[in-house]
Design brief:
heterodimer, A: about 400 residues, alpha/beta, about 40% helix, B: about 400 residues, formyl-coa transferase, domain 3, 19 helices
């Protein structure tokens, strides 16, 4: 089967999990992603996961964020190392990096310098806070961006510490890949390359789209403090109710007219109860009363009961599950969202798969994450046409590994 | 200025959030997006009346922002004439996008097989709830699917209710995935002339949204990743949230001696630096609870801004934990066009909207118009794009295929 990005050459100079994942999304769909790892630092950092558990025997973060990539380890402090990178840039379609702006400028790897070597290159940059503004040089840490986005204080219940969800980088990873794909489309049409920017701040804001937009349009204190669970805006949507034995039931029925008869029936409420027999009554006049009634009703039966009746009636509600659920869920497996495979030296492992399904050009796992410099010599030989002597010299002087 | 997706036509048969926002990304970058809606009521998103028990106000920002830069075509797809128009539109389009259920699309004869027969170059994109395969078609609103991923169960303090990431947080992610998938398929089509079926499901997207912890869980099976973890026991006390006198702060320092000494200096607490139970990374990890307690006491003594001021010259990495009001006036968000102003016809004034999270230096996105009125472009699309005569258009009206 063919791949969507078959001929694309991507130079990946990323250091963080989220930005590496952005480049991996291109590799998953067939791009030739060359991970340029900067010596000597790269020797000290096996993978780039924050806190791998060495006991499991494989670097699971790298196995996700660096899959399908080739590795070239290069000393960019040496003139000959920089020359190799420049040769590579001349052959590349995409340059993707999360280095700070100042470091890129100092090393002649900013857009102006890179596009001088390869005018139609697509230069994708992931930052903490975007290319403009007073905070463009703050570190690219998702925690800092999440703290600025305004959601952390309102995610938990009142009186609880703010919650860091850790998802901002995941939005930004896809934004980077999407930005590259847009720029690629434009380049195919016109021959023109350009700079693509995505930031963790933008990713966090985008992830919080509806809350942020509602605040921009409506304002109001209600958006600044947590809304107690039992004061939910719609008793039937976005609310959690505890079951008898603990697990939570989550309802998402924004269009209450549609779902009310079914919900009333399973919770033993008279669907024609005059307190609740219209959307306005349920969501305005008797909102708090309905929440109390549902709270009481869900406490009467265990989670297994609710799972069974919700499934049987195809209601828009489910139980709050833990990771063991998707880890063993047939639906996640058969759609390739979670892969199970043999890893040499470790055995059977599970790893996150591919969130986008394409019928003609599916994502695939061609190779596991590379070892540091695993493909250095091959890339120099095949892509750049360096002689064996020249490559050997670079190895001997420690410029490549 | 040139637009990245100039010349690409997208049929947007979507409702609520994930599908509309996917098409919004394409529209922002210049694709011609035709939103196809049922006559009379249109997309259910038009009916959103309140958010968090507050009335939405004089303009429906839920609908108007994610449907910006689009046209609207009102079409009754239950009628054969409505379908005839749709097939004609499919012939003239590059992308068909829908987040309606697959069984419903099939029942309207708008499945992949049918439409790719009508136009073999068509990129047929769906946002299913749980994936294209496997046969699960139960309802799939954002939070119910987030519930299944395990993402909610691990957030917050032990014994507290699970945490939802925010309204439409998973839809937003699925929408971006879908837009990426469509671009990949268009790229492939350029080379081969062939369209294909691209699906980005809400479930698949949300599993990826929690990749950092789910991947760790898949490898280790450890409850450290799947269950709620108390703030008071964070493994690295230097990387944690703390309550200052007025608001919370996020401190982000790796557990290294040099950072520790800087922090002690920043806290004006030379005694703390001398405490033997905290004088190495290992001890700070082992005595994390005690250290967090100690830092809690210390940080409560001043306002967040005061700490930030003191820490800045020392290079201590931290941020106050802001609220949405702080965000709304954050110059960083405005200068990067993450927020922009747009004219809202409904209220005849400029309003503030979520802007452009992705910057393209030569073909930037734009916000030209907010969401269309239901069916506002119906006749023009039929006449200009599809080449129907006014007589034919009159007949379609008589049959109720269009309003």
């Amino acid at each position: 089967m063919s791949s969507a990005l078959g001929e694309l050459v991507v130079l990946d100079l990323t250091t963080a999990f989220w930005s590496s994942l952005g480049a991996a999304l291109l590799g998953d769909f067939g791009a030739r992603v060359i991970r340029v790892e900067k010596l000597p630092e790269a020797r000290q950092q096996p993978g780039n996961g924050a806190d791998e558990d060495p006991a499991v025997g494989w670097d699971y973060n790298a196995e996700l964020a660096q899959r399908n990539k080739l590795s070239l380890a290069l000393d960019l402090d040496e003139e000959s190392g920089r020359a190799v990178l420049q040769d590579l840039i001349r052959k590349a379609d995409v340059f993707i990096t999360d280095w700070p702006f100042s470091k890129l400028e100092n090393r002649g790897l900013d857009y102006a310098s890179v596009s001088a070597l390869k005018p139609d290159i697509i230069y994708a940059h992931g930052s903490g806070f975007g290319p403009k503004g007073p905070d463009r040089d703050l570190p690219a840490l998702d925690e800092l961006a999440a703290a600025r986005t305004g959601m952390m204080p309102i995610l938990p219940q009142p009186g609880q510490p703010p919650v860091y969800a850790g998802a901002g980088g995941m939005y930004t990873a896809v934004m980077l890949a999407f930005g590259v794909a847009l720029a690629l489309h434009h380049r195919e049409e016109t021959g023109e390359g350009q700079q693509v920017d995505a930031s963790l701040f933008a990713g966090n804001i985008y992830g919080a789209s509806l809350d942020v937009q509602a605040y921009l349009a409506m304002g109001g204190e209600r958006f600044l403090r947590p809304v107690p669970r039992l004061d939910a805006g719609n008793p039937m949507s976005g609310v959690l109710y505890p079951s008898k034995d603990g697990p939570w039931v989550c309802l998402t029925m924004p269009d209450t007219d549609r779902w009310w008869p079914g919900l009333a029936q399973i919770t033993g409420i008279d669907p024609d109860d005059t307190r609740f027999n219209s959307h306005e009554k349920r969501c305005e006049e008797h909102r708090l009363e309905l929440i109390q009634v549902l709270e009481e009703a869900f406490r009467q039966r265990p989670a297994s009961h609710w799972k069974a009746v919700l499934t049987e009636r195809q209601l828009s509600a489910d139980l709050i599950e833990e990771f063991d659920y998707p880890a063993s869920d047939e639906q996640a497996r058969c759609n390739g969202y979670i892969l199970e495979l043999d890893r040499p030296g470790v055995g059977r492992i599970k790893t996150l798969g591919f969130p986008i399904s394409m019928s003609e050009t599916p994502a695939r796992l061609d190779r596991m994450a590379p070892c540091l410099g695993q493909h250095s010599a091959a890339i120099l030989h095949e892509m750049l046409g360096y002689s064996e002597d020249r490559t050997a010299e670079l190895v001997a002087s420690g410029v490549i590994t | 200025m040139a637009r990245a997706l100039e010349g690409i036509r997208v049929i947007d048969l979507t409702v609520w959030f994930q599908g509309p926002v996917a098409a919004q990304h394409l529209a922002d970058f210049g694709a011609e997006v035709i939103k196809v809606e049922r006559p009379k009521t249109g997309d259910q998103g038009r009916g959103v009346r309140s958010i968090k028990a507050l009335p939405v106000g004089d303009w429906n920002q839920y609908f108007l922002v994610i449907n910006r830069n689009k046209k609207s075509l009102a079409l009754d797809l239950k009628k054969p004439e409505g379908r005839e128009i749709m097939y004609r539109l499919v012939e003239e389009s590059d992308v068909f996008l829908s987040n309606l259920g697959l069984p419903l699309l099939e029942s309207w004869e708008l499945g992949y097989e049918k439409l790719s027969e009508v136009n073999p170059r068509l990129v047929y994109a769906t946002n299913t709830g749980y994936g294209r395969l496997g046969g699960v078609h139960k309802p799939s609103f954002d939070m119910t699917v987030q519930a299944l991923t395990g993402l909610m169960a691990r957030l917050g303090e032990p014994d507290q209710p699970p945490i939802y990431l925010g309204m439409g947080s998973g839809d937003a992610y699925g929408g971006m995935m879908s837009a990426l998938g469509i671009m990949l398929a268009l790229h492939h089509r350029r080379r081969t002339g062939k369209g294909q079926w691209v699906d980005a499901s809400l479930y698949g997207a949300q599993l990826f949204l929690t990749a950092p912890s789910l991947q760790a869980y898949l490898a280790t099976g450890s409850e450290r990743y799947s269950k709620q973890q108390p703030r008071e026991a964070a493994p690295n006390p230097l990387w944690n949230t703390y309550s200052c006198k007025d608001k919370w702060i996020f401190l982000c320092l790796t557990n290294e001696d040099k950072n520790w000494l800087q922090l002690c200096q920043g806290l004006d607490d030379p005694e703390l630096a001398k405490e033997p139970r905290f004088d190495s990374a290992e001890k700070r990890r082992q005595n994390a609870r005690a250290l967090i307690e100690r830092l809690d006491e210390k940080l409560k003594q001043r306002d967040a801004a005061e700490w930030m001021e003191r820490w800045k010259p020392l290079g201590i990495i931290a941020s106050p934990i802001c609220n949405l009001a702080d965000l709304g006036s954050d110059p960083q968000a405005w200068e990067n066009d993450y927020f922009v102003e747009a004219y809202c016809e409904e209220v005849q004034r400029q309003v503030q909207v979520r802007g452009l999270p992705i910057g393209l230096s030569k073909t930037p996105g734009v916000v030209n118009t907010l969401g269309p009125e239901l069916g506002q472009d119906t006749e023009l699309i039929l006449a200009d794009t599809l080449g129907y005569s006014w007589d034919q258009i009159g007949e379609f009206k008589a049959h109720g295929a269009i309003p």
